[in-house]
Amino acid sequence: MIKLQIQGYDEPFEIENLVFDYNGTLALDGKMSIRTREGLSLLHKAGFNITVLTADTLGTVTKECEGLPIEVNIFDKGNAEESKLEIVNRLGAEKTAAIGNGRNDLSMLKNANIGIAVIGMEGAYAGLMQAADILVPSIDSAIELFLKPKRIEATLRR
Predict the structure, then answer these.
(1) How is domain 18-156 classified at the CATH fold level?
(2) At 76, which helix (H) or strand (E)?
(3) Using CA atoms, how far apart are residues 22 and 103, in angstroms rounded to an integer?
(4) What is the model's pLDDT at position 77?
(5) What pLDDT score was predicted for residue 127?
(6) What distance in Å separates the CA atoms of residue 62 and residue 45, rounded to the nearest whole number?
(7) Which of 14, 93, 151, 158 is deepest in the core (most CB within 10 A)?
């Protein structure tokens, strides 16, 4: 968990939960890099609850997340955006950061306390970039924001 008092905001940001989209965000073509796996483990050690959300289009999430201290939620492709938003709200949007790259990540990024759009190798939905609080060039950059939270403060301060 982190608590950030960011210049220009009345209330501190308290983030306990990190919610990640899987395909296109954590994984490219269904595979996670070793660096990303290590980063997720470090986030867990830093006290974050980590949830991965996916329709598992490529059928790899269970194998790729095996041994990681995370919760994986697989849901139907037809209602991905609604399912992701429901999970963020169930966890408590006010204490959650959402990280994604696709159109079906839009609602969860808008509703989470902090929304981060990842512009990785798969690209990112243009509308998501306008809804996000922070844009990053890779999933590893997104993970590092929470391991080095002064970066978040520097980016969001007024």
Answers:
(1) Rossmann fold (3.40.50)
(2) none
(3) 13
(4) 77
(5) 95
(6) 21
(7) 93
- What CA–CA distance (Å, rounded) separates 26 from 101? 9
Among 115, 139, 135, 138, CA closest to 126: 135
Phi, psi dihedrals of residue 4, rounded to the nearest 5°: -120, 125
d(CA 105, CA 21): 7
Instruction: Give CA separation, 38 vs 45, 116, 131, in Å.
Output: 11, 20, 28
* Ordered mean pLDDT values, 10 residues apiece, the chain (158 residues): 92 96 96 98 98 95 97 89 97 98 97 97 94 97 98 95
Per-residue pLDDT at 78: 81
Sequence-distant (6+) residues with CB within 8 A of 26 are 20, 32, 36, 40, 52, 139
Alpha helices for the chain (secondary structure H): 34-45, 61-65, 80-91, 106-111, 126-131, 139-147, 150-156
pTM: 0.96
pLDDT of 97: 98
> Where do we find the tokens 């790899």?
60
- The pLDDT value recorded for residue 79 is 87
The residue length of the chain stands at 158
* Nearest-angstrom CA–CA distance, 37 and 99: 15
